[in-house]
Every structure is written in structure tokens, then in C-alpha cells.
Design brief:
With about 230 residues, the chain is mainly alpha-helical. Helix content is about 75%, strand content about 5%. The chain has seven helices and four strands; from the N terminus they run ααααααββββα. Strand 3 (about 190) and strand 4 form a beta hairpin.
């Protein structure tokens, strides 16, 4: 009797189709919450930006250093969202799930390379459990997303207020120096996205990645210390 290769593309597709699960309710609620927050902020972005300006006016530098303002605003946004996620989630459980998933994927690659049909079959039998654990972790993160967006999206509204009003956007072109020349912050990229959003995102991303790793590392060590103290 010839045994079908469980590592073949056909078998993998069939296994994935069998393991596909409907989107969890928590994920849908999280996405709906983010959409509602975005719609509210878009409708009232000037009013929200003006209200936040009472606090953020200390980092606008009178519109003289827009890139520095965007950088500081990005740091504040990433810090708030990362700290909120860190305190409302379990970094130890996340690290454990990621480690198990990484080990599982490594074993799967090894079994395919060695064409170990028995090992492949056993690993594929474990796949629903792995997908369920991964889905559970993703659902928890999606539930937290509306809470983080409460801090993130209003800061975008303030950046809009800063660019439009503080930097004299009503009469003066918002020209800044770039490595390749000059650019107007109010110009559109690809015909619909203001350049200031692109620059703000490009500035925030690398800083955010470094800060995110640092804060998560601190919270992870704090959580481990608390767990060890509880076991002592």
C-alpha cells in the first residue's frame, strides 16, 4: 500500500482548508471599534486637534522645527500605545506562544527536508492546536487595538491641526528640507495621501520599533520577576 505524502502541496492545502476557522467574535469587535474611532476622529479632527493642542503646543516649537515635532509626537504615540498594550497583555504568555510556534515551524521544515512522513503526519495532527493557540493570541491583541487606537488616532488629528494651523498652512507653503531636496508637507503622494502623513509614519516606524522592543523587554522582565516572587 502506497502512503500519500503528507508534505505534498495538495495534502497541505487540504489540511489548511480543514483547519480554517471563522473569524472570532473578539476580532470582529476589535475591528469595528477601530473603525468607529477612526470615523469619529475624522469627523471631528479639527476640534480634537485643537483640544489636544493645549497639551501638545509645548512640542510644536512655533512651527519652526516640524520634523522634530513629528519625531517627538511619534515617540509619545508609540510610548502610550506600547505601555497600554504591555499592561493589559501577558508578555510571558506571548513569548511562550511565539517560542512554541517557532519550534513547531522548525520541526516541520526539518521533517519536510528529511521527507519523514511519520513525523509530518504527527505534526499535521498538531496543527489545529497550534492554529487555535495562534488565533487566541491574535484575538487578544485585536481586543486591545481599540484601546490603543484611542491614543494613536487622536494624535494624528493633532498632527493635522499642527500642519494646517500652527505652521501657517492657510497662506504659506509648508516647505521642509529633505535629503533629496525640498518638499511641501501638504502635497499629496499617489494623489490622495498628504506628504505629512508619509513623513510622520516614516519617522515613527524606526523609532517605534526600537522603543517597542525596549518597553516590552522591561515589562517582560518585570512580569517574570513577579512570577518568580509568587513562586518563592
Amino acid at each position: 500500500m502506497i502512503m500519500a505524502n503528507p508534505g505534498s502541496p495538495e495534502q497541505m492545502r487540504q489540511q489548511q482548508q480543514q483547519n480554517m476557522q471563522p473569524m472570532p467574535k473578539g476580532t470582529m469587535i476589535g475591528m469595528l471599534g477601530v473603525l468607529v474611532i477612526m470615523m469619529v476622529v475624522m469627523m471631528w479632527r479639527v476640534q480634537i486637534g485643537e483640544a489636544l493642542n493645549y497639551v501638545f503646543k509645548y512640542i510644536d516649537f512655533g512651527g519652526q522645527y516640524p520634523v522634530l515635532t513629528l519625531m517627538v509626537a511619534g515617540i509619545i504615540m508609540i510610548t502610550l500605545s506600547t505601555v497600554v498594550r504591555g499592561f493589559l497583555s501577558d508578555p510571558v504568555a506571548q513569548a511562550k506562544t511565539q517560542h512554541i510556534q517557532s519550534e513547531y515551524n522548525a520541526e516541520m521544515r526539518t521533517a519536510r527536508t528529511e521527507n519523514n512522513l511519520y513525523k509530518l503526519k504527527k505534526l499535521q495532527e498538531m496543527q489545529p492546536q497550534m492554529m487555535a493557540a495562534s488565533m487566541e493570541q491574535s484575538t487578544k491583541m485585536m481586543k486591545l487595538m481599540p484601546l490603543t487606537m484611542v491614543f494613536v488616532i487622536p494624535i494624528y488629528a493633532w498632527i493635522f491641526y499642527f500642519v494646517t494651523f500652527t505652521m501657517h498652512g492657510d497662506t504659506t507653503p509648508l516647505i521642509i528640507s529633505m535629503p533629496w531636496g525640498t518638499a511641501n508637507l501638504m502635497d499629496n503622494v499617489m494623489g490622495f495621501m498628504p506628504l505629512w502623513i508619509v513623513i510622520y509614519t516614516l519617522i515613527s516606524l524606526p523609532i517605534g520599533q526600537l522603543e517597542n522592543k525596549l518597553i516590552n523587554h522591561i515589562l517582560f522582565k518585570k512580569r517574570l520577576k513577579a512570577l518568580n516572587a509568587g513562586e518563592a
